[in-house]
Amino acid sequence: MADPDAAAPPIAVASSDPPPALPDGPPPKVTHRGRVVTPSASSNEDADELPEFEYFVAPGPRGLPSLAEYLDILEVDMLKKPDESNRVQHHTDLFNTNLLAVRRGQEFQVKIAFDRPYDATKDKFAVEFGIGPSPQFSKNTYVPVFPTPERQSSWAGRVAETAGATVTMGITPTADAIVGRYRLYVAVVTPYGVRRTKQDDSRDLYILYNPWVKDDAVFLDDEEERAECVLNESGVIYHGTWDDIAERNWNFGQFDYGVLDACLYIMDRAEMPIINRGDPVKVARIASAMLNSRDDDGVLVGSWSGDYSYGVAPTSWTGSTNILLGYYRSRNPVRYAQCWVYAAVFNSFLRCLGIPSRVVTNFYSAHDNDGNLKTDIILDENGRIDRKNTRDSIWNYHCWNECYMTRSDLPTGFGGWQAVDATPQETSDGMFRCGPASVRAIKHGELCFPFDAAFVFAEVNSDVVFYSRQKDGTMTVVKVKKDHVGRLILTKAPGSYDRRDITHLYKFPEGSVEERTVLEKGEVYGCAREQSELPEADVELLLPSLEVAVGDDFQLDLQVVSRSGERRTVDAYVTGSVVYYTGVTSADFLFKTPTVKLEGNQSVKEVWQVPARSYMKKLVEQANLHFIATGKVKETGQIITAMKVVALHTPKLSIKVSGLSKVNEEMTATMDFTNPFSFILEHVYVRFEGPGVLSPVFKYYGLIPGGSRVTWAENFTPRRAGTTRLIATLDCAALRQVAGQIQLDVLP
Question: What are the start-end ranges of the H helices in 185-338?
């Protein structure tokens, strides 16, 4: 019963008065005031200077006391030349930078010239490091380093050598130090105050992750793997189909001039707190979001439209340098990218900062946006594919990254390789990003572990489920393919240009006891597979592998095999479609409906000629043809299926070099291409670059008539010795993915 003494609810009163007008002008600026004293330091570019003089005493009648009797600093030598011990011992000698770059957890040295010999008994000085705005000792953004063992801070310091008035100071940052660009000062300490060196940008230094030091979270105890995943600039990215693999060469360019500053800017643009930049898990997760522009104006704009009029086609890029520098200089996202471009640029970012990383390609990669581990293909009651109701697709391949690090946030054993993906597929915690997800957790079905392990698990372990849809809308499972998705997972082998199969790192063998255990565990976390137990059909459809070049006529064979001793009749449907590499259909170009009659245990082959004119005008980038054969066995009612993706081979361009292959000796690279078609190629871009030898350049051709030849000679001067590659691409709307490469051994 209601309380009679309770206050009555307010009564709504109608009013003809208009609502109060909104104030004119822009809304007030949102600030941090009232919440914290100062905003979080989140910019490495904005760095406050420490005062040149800092007195400890108040001015007396005669003013401030003189510091003239104490040490004075004449010069600070950062020992930053590429051939000096700092950069050689820290594996940073490849960086093309005017500043010193060192790695945390390892000693580096600076030489300080005083105005007189240093006396440890009475002279006091410190080397000070500051990063970001308002450096603070409590946040490890201001770190003083002292030369005597009696007084030490978190970073260790020692006098390594004294020669006259010059002191060589050894400094060891902690193995978990903040990664970024620091300012360095030398301060002489007196009873009256501190005298510091003036701010000088030439004394700035970069402190990076250190996979060579055990205490660093990114330590990788394999020298060959370290050399590949941190120091190698020349990469190979795999694409095509699992049974017809193609290679795309890439210049990661992590040591090129300006790239390191661009990578630090990416974290600034994300407003990532400076104090978090020593944690590789947080850095990888932030970068996964920032490499795409979907929700934060990040580095790359993704596009799968085929129209790249306002930027560079994804297939035209040859390396990461122009992308990263373009973003850094313009402060605007760079157009355009697809999955391998995201992965390649992300790889450059990680290697540049010192986090071991590699690009991974998963062939037949599922995009499971609802987490049900199923890719659904709908057939009508006769066994023909129902295009209207089939929504799911499987990417012919998908590229992501792995980075190597410990995971203190996970149980022991789940560190090591972590999957991270910058391609904007689905949101994670409200942003388009993915990972880092422990590869071991994915393999063992520990899908509750952060971050996004369930999504990657689905990419490599989904089922392809065929449904028969009746006229009343009901659907029945007629076939399940459990071994189609995640067919092959590849990365480049360390120290060579060979492929490395890493499928076993992500999944147990199909049908094994371990795999069944993992899938049962996955179901606990909501990833349920199709449980239908279907009888084995006694008739099989087979589509053979094909190697076809763009513009070629070819023959398509469908083999129908009966394993029954009785007669069988199959009403088959064969569809040929032009598809994007994401598996999305662009247009159909072939449709056949043979009826095949088989005697007991007989095999019958149906053959069709496919002229180039049927598919050429419908081709989209990457030139993929998708064939699906389905059929219904009249005698048993069973549905049978077969699928095949054919990646059409594009023409190649050739590269030749002339001249003495030696550092600082001019050479010439010549690109040669002949248009093999009868039609004209319009608006053609050719791009050229090579790690350590040739900075990115491009040339534009308005028209290349059918059958005509173009050559382009470019002079270059190798900057360093070693094995590298020159990479070239040719790209236009009518012909994508034309590329060439040549290996170059440069002598000292």
Answer: 223-226, 259-269, 280-290, 321-330
Supply angle C-alpha 602, 603, 607, rounded to 5: 145
Strands (E), 212-263: 234-241, 244-251
- Is the model's pLDDT at 602 over the cut of 70? yes
Tokens found for residue 92: 């940073």
pLDDT band at 36 (very low <50, low <70, confident <90, very high): low
Tokens at 627, concatenated: 């064939």
Task: Give the chain's end-to-end CA distance (angstroms, integer).
Answer: 96
Question: Any bridge partners for residue 574, and if so which?
Answer: 592, 629
pLDDT digits (tens, 9 = 90+) for 415-458: 999 999 999 998 888 999 999 999 999 999 998 999 999 899 98
List of domains in the chain? 53-208 (2.60.40.10), 233-524 (3.90.260.10), 539-647 (2.60.40.10), 654-746 (2.60.40.10)
User: Rounded to whole angstroms, what are the CA distances from 465 to 395, 479, 537, 646?
Assistant: 16, 6, 15, 21
Residue 727 sits at φ, ψ, to 5 deg, of -125, 135
Catalytic residue positions, numbered: 339, 398, 421
CA 441 to chain CA centroid, nearest Å:
20
Contacts of 108 (CB under 8 A, 6+ apart): 79, 86, 89, 90, 100, 102, 170, 171, 172
Cis, peptide link before residue 397, omega less than 30° from 0: no
Distances (CA, A) of 301 to 145, 326, 611: 44, 13, 36
Identify which of 263, 160, 168, 159 has the alpha carbon closest to the alpha carbon of residue 209: 263
CA distance readout (Å), 48 to 45, 79, 161, 184, 207: 10, 24, 31, 12, 18
List all residues 6 or more positions away from 64 whose beta carbon is below 8 Å from its beta carbon: 55, 57, 192, 193
Cα gap 369→252, rounded to integer Å: 31
SS (H, E, C) 501-515: ECHHHHCCCCCCHHH
- How does pLDDT run across 112-122, given as a tens digit for each residue? 999 999 999 88
Average pLDDT over residues 540-558: 93
Strands of the 654-658 sheet, one edge to the other: 654-658, 667-674, 709-716
